[in-house]
Design brief:
By secondary structure, the protein is of the alpha+beta class. The chain contains 7 helices and 22 strands.
C-alpha cells in the first residue's frame, strides 16, 4: 500500500539519521573532546608544578643528559671569604744596565772633562799687563792665572792652560822673569814667552825648561795680530797660534806628557761649608804706595764666581768680549824686590821658605800659610792649624804680593 510504504520509508529515514550520530562520526567527536580535556589537565598540572618550583627557587630548566651527568652536587655556602688567588705583587725587575762611568776631571780645576787629561802637560803663557795692552786675547780660557810684579809697579800675567777652548791665538805675549818660569816648572808646564830677563835665561839653562820663545827662538808659532797692532801697538801685538803648538812640540821633541809618578799639587773640596771673614769684594794691593798696582774681585753669588777687575774696569778678553771669572783667589806675600843693578827696574822674587797669605772662595776669606822647599816644586798651602787648603772646583787666580802688599776685604 502506498501510504504504508511512505510511512516506513519515513521511519527508515529517521533511523538513518540517528545511526549517523551514533556511528563512526560520533565516536571521532568524542575522542577529540577527551583529548582536549586531557591536554588541558596536563597543561594545568605543568603550570602548577612550575609555580611550585618558582616558589621553592628551583631551577626549572629541563635537565639534559649532559647537565644531569656533570652538574656539581649542591654545597653549603662558604662561611669564610674565599682565599685570594691573585698572583702576589712582585718587585719590578732590577735594572742590570751598568751605570755610566763618571767623567774624568781636570787636575787643575776639578771640572769634568771629556777625556782623561791627567797625564797631559799644561801650557804656561806669558801676557803683557799694562793698561795700554789690556784687554788680553784668550785670557778667559786659562784654568789658572798668576799675577806677579815684573818691573817697577807693572805686573805680568801667566795663564795656565790644559785646553785652549777654541782660542786660536793668545796674546799679547811678553817676556819672562825667572820666578814666572819657576811657577811654570812647578806645574810641569811647557812655557811660552817672548824673550826674558838675564836671570830667566840662566834659569832656563840650569833647569832645562821646555819652552817656546817668540823672540830668541824660531818664531814659527808667533805672529803680530792685525787687530792688536792697530789697537795697542806693535809691541803688544805678538800672539801665539795655539793650533800650531802640538806640531811645534813634536818637531822639537818637547815632552808633552808628565813623567811617570807625577801628581798635580791641588786637592778639592765642595762638601765642607766655607767659613771665614766676609769677602764679597777683594782688593789686592801690590805695594803700599798710592801708585801700586791693584786688582779687584767682586763675588757673584748666582754663579759662585769672582769677577776680576783692574785699571778701573773688569778684566776682559778681546776674543770673546767677556770678563775673567774665577772660583778661587789666593794672595801670598813673599820677598819680591827691585834688583839693585838693573837699570830697567826689573824684579826678583824669593819663593822658597815659608810665608803667609789669604784664600778667598764663595764670598769668604781665611788666613793661610805657605811653604816651598825647592824651586821646582809648588807651594804647600795650609790653614794656621796645619790642615791643608782644598780648593773649590773651578778656576784659580794666584797673586804673589811683595811683603808690603795687602788684601782689603769688603762686605
Amino acid at each position: 500500500m502506498p501510504t504504508a510504504n511512505r510511512e516506513r520509508n519515513a521511519g527508515s529515514g529517521r533511523s538513518a539519521t540517528g545511526a549517523s550520530r551514533g556511528g563512526p562520526g560520533g565516536k571521532q567527536t568524542v575522542w577529540i573532546v577527551i583529548c582536549a580535556v586531557v591536554a588541558v589537565a596536563i597543561a594545568a598540572t605543568a603550570l602548577v608544578m612550575t609555580l611550585g618550583s618558582l616558589k621553592r627557587g628551583e631551577d626549572t630548566t629541563p635537565p639534559t643528559e649532559e647537565t644531569e651527568d656533570t652538574a656539581p652536587p649542591a654545597t653549603e655556602p662558604p662561611t669564610e671569604p674565599p682565599e685570594d688567588t691573585a698572583p702576589p705583587e712582585t718587585e719590578p725587575p732590577e735594572d742590570t744596565t751598568p751605570p755610566e762611568p763618571p767623567k774624568p776631571r781636570s787636575p787643575l780645576t776639578n771640572l769634568e772633562v771629556e777625556e782623561d787629561i791627567s797625564a797631559r802637560r799644561p801650557w804656561a803663557v806669558m801676557f803683557d799687563n799694562i793698561k795700554g795692552a789690556a784687554p788680553q786675547t784668550g785670557i778667559t780660557a786659562a784654568d789658572m792665572i798668576f799675577e806677579i810684579l815684573a818691573e817697577g809697579n807693572i805686573t805680568r800675567l801667566m795663564g795656565i792652560y790644559e785646553d785652549f777652548d777654541g782660542m786660536e791665538i793668545l796674546g799679547g805675549v811678553r817676556s819672562s822673569r825667572e820666578y814666572f818660569a819657576e811657577m811654570a816648572l812647578s806645574l810641569d808646564a811647557i812655557y811660552i814667552h817672548a824673550g826674558g830677563s838675564p836671570g830667566a835665561y840662566s834659569f832656563f839653562q840650569k833647569y832645562k825648561v821646555d819652552r817656546i820663545d817668540g823672540v830668541n827662538g824660531s818664531g814659527e808659532t808667533f805672529h803680530r795680530d792685525a787687530y792688536r797692532k792697530s789697537t795697542f801697538g806693535t809691541v803688544h801685538a805678538l800672539v801665539v797660534e795655539t793650533t800650531e803648538l802640538a806640531g811645534y812640540a813634536e818637531k822639537y821633541k818637547l815632552r808633552t806628557e808628565h813623567k811617570e809618578g807625577y801628581t798635580a799639587p791641588f786637592t778639592f773640596d765642595d762638601e765642607t761649608e766655607r767659613t771665614g771673614e766676609r769677602a764679597v769684594t777683594v782688593t789686592a794691593h801690590f805695594g803700599s804706595s798710592k801708585s801700586a798696582k791693584t786688582t779687584g774681585f767682586t763675588y757673584d753669588p748666582e754663579s759662585g764666581q769672582y769677577l776680576v777687575s783692574q785699571f778701573g774696569g773688569y778684566m776682559g778678553d778681546t776674543a770673546v768680549k767677556d770678563t775673567v771669572k774665577v772660583r778661587n783667589v789666593i794672595a801670598l806675600n813673599a820677598k819680591i824686590y827691585i834688583l839693585n843693578d838693573d837699570d830697567k827696574g826689573r824684579r826678583e822674587a824669593e819663593l822658597t821658605g815659608t810665608g803667609t797669605g789669604k784664600y778667598m772662595v764663595d764670598g769668604v776669606a781665611r788666613d793661610i800659610q805657605w811653604s816651598r822647599d825647592s824651586r821646582t816644586g809648588f807651594f804647600t798651602l795650609t790653614y794656621p792649624d796645619g790642615s791643608p787648603v782644598a780648593l773649590g772646583t773651578g778656576k784659580t787666580y794666584f797673586m804673589l804680593l811683595p811683603m808690603n802688599g795687602t788684601v782689603e776685604l769688603g762686605a
